[in-house]
Specification:
Elements (H helix, E strand, L loop, with lengths): L1 H9 L7 H4 L2 H16 L16 H4 L12 E10 L6 E8 L5 H14 L3 E12 L2 E3 L3 H13 L1 H9 L6 E10 L2 E9 L6 H19 L2 E4 L12 H6 L2 E11 H8 L3 H18 L9 H11 L7 H4 L3 E7 L2 E11 L11 H9 L11 H26 L3 H7 L4
Parallel strand pairs: 1-3
Antiparallel strand pairs: 1-2, 3-6, 3-8, 4-6, 4-7, 5-6, 8-10, 9-10
């Protein structure tokens, strides 16, 4: 080890090159020892992990020195009445360091299950990438748009030549001055699909550039929109657009949430709807990001996609004898293959939900997972709205070490 650390220190060996000379675990150990020496910090906990890293160092991380472990809890069981997660009773894995979160979601799961389960439906499904082109002038920009609109089959052929699994769905062009953005949408089956659509979009971009003379400036022009708050995702969707709802009687609301239907509806109206509108928020919800982030970390999703996922809308409708509570997630990018889903601990969490790996037919596992995530978000929204309506929020945080 000393020889490798000496070479790293003198610069004749780069941190990223250790795996070229050593087996993965040894490379990680040497790299960690070097960082310990450089920073004067012992890292025994970081160096203690159970996941197999042969694939991880090739696919998921660079310059690996160990792992950061996040506590994992479960909420449930929750009954999900979806099209893909049909009549499925689940324990939802939640990885978080926020005390009270799992307890809160767990309470919502109990209420939903008592009410007969959450009805969940996927309204649309499509992952996007939007390359940007530079046109010569406005007239040329219009010609580029016309070409895109008139050559769907050529675009489809180019896109699908790059993948055995992805399916091209649509291409929509937008213009700002001499910039032309082409928002391409794909069905990526059980993969979240960003790598898939990026590769396909490169091929499409080359075709558009060749056929129109417009210069392909960047493969992502931010009209996708990936990992940034954007109204286009709220309106048109990105990934899965999922809606979950549950009907609660006055008795259920009183017994489990310690409030009443009228108060629950008013809290949602004044907080989630009016308050979010006054703040010009892209999310009209109580804390959807909390639940999505915890599930994403547990299940190997791209954590940055919490940005899109949390742009959710929570509604509480007064109905005869109680309320109907729903959450709409317009943009939920999830997958059960690829990315972090193959890491040992994350794959185990997906297996708990019955959605690990590819489904038969392709796409059903990712859709079932999206339905479960939406049901979990609904549970979290119900519980927090109930705590606010009953004036219990501060006490709950204090009881769970959040004071």
């Amino acid at each position: 080890m000393d020889e490798y650390i000496r070479r790293l220190a003198e610069g004749s060996l780069k941190l990223y090159a250790l795996e070229k000379e050593l087996p993965p675990e040894e490379a990680v150990r040497v790299r960690r020892a070097f960082i310990e020496a450089e920073t004067g910090t012992r890292l025994p906990a970081v160096g203690s992990f159970s996941i197999g890293i042969d694939r991880v160092v090739k696919r998921n991380i660079e310059n690996m020195i160990g792992t950061v472990q996040v506590p994992l809890g479960v909420a449930g069981p929750i009954l999900v009445n979806g099209e893909y997660a049909a009549a499925r009773s689940c324990y939802i894995p939640l990885a978080t360091t926020e005390g009270a979160l799992v307890a809160s979601v767990n309470r919502g799961c109990s209420l939903i299950t008592r009410a007969g389960g959450a009805d969940v439906r996927i309204m649309r499904d499509g992952m996007t990438r939007a390359p940007v082109f530079a046109a010569r002038d406005v007239a040329h920009a219009r010609e580029v748009v016309a070409w895109v609109e008139g050559h769907t089959e050529e675009i489809r052929e180019a896109a699908e030549s790059t993948t055995k699994h992805g399916e091209f769905l649509s291409a929509t062009a937008y213009v700002a001055g001499t910039s032309v953005f082409v928002r391409l949408e794909f069905d990526t089956k059980d993969a979240m699909g960003m790598n898939m659509v990026t590769i396909a979009s490169q091929k499409v971009g080359e075709v558009i550039e060749r056929e129109t003379g417009a210069h392909l400036v960047a493969l992502s022009g931010n009209m996708c929109t990936d990992k940034k708050p954007a109204a286009i995702n709220l309106i048109q969707g990105r990934g899965k657009t999922v809606v979950a709802g549950v009907r609660l009687t006055e008795t259920m609301v009183a017994d489990l949430l310690k409030t009443d239907a009228e108060t629950l509806a008013e809290v949602n109206y004044r907080k989630n709807l009016v308050g979010s509108a006054r703040a010009a928020s892209f999310g009209f919800n109580a804390h959807a990001a909390n639940v999505i982030a915890a599930i994403f970390i547990a299940c190997g999703q791209d954590a940055a996609h919490v940005v899109e996922g949390s742009s959710a809308i929570t509604t509480v409708d007064r109905v005869s004898g109680g309320v109907y509570v729903s959450v709409t997630l317009p943009s939920l990018p999830v997958g059960t293959v690829g990315g972090g889903t193959s890491i040992d601990t994350q794959r185990e969490c997906l297996a708990m939900l019955g959605v690990a790996g590819g489904g038969d037919p392709p796409g059903v596992h990712a859709k079932a997972f999206a339905e479960i995530v939406a049901a979990g978000v609904l549970a979290g929204e119900l519980s927090l709205l109930g705590a606010l309506a009953a004036q219990h929020l501060a006490r709950a945080h204090q009881d769970h070490g959040r004071g």
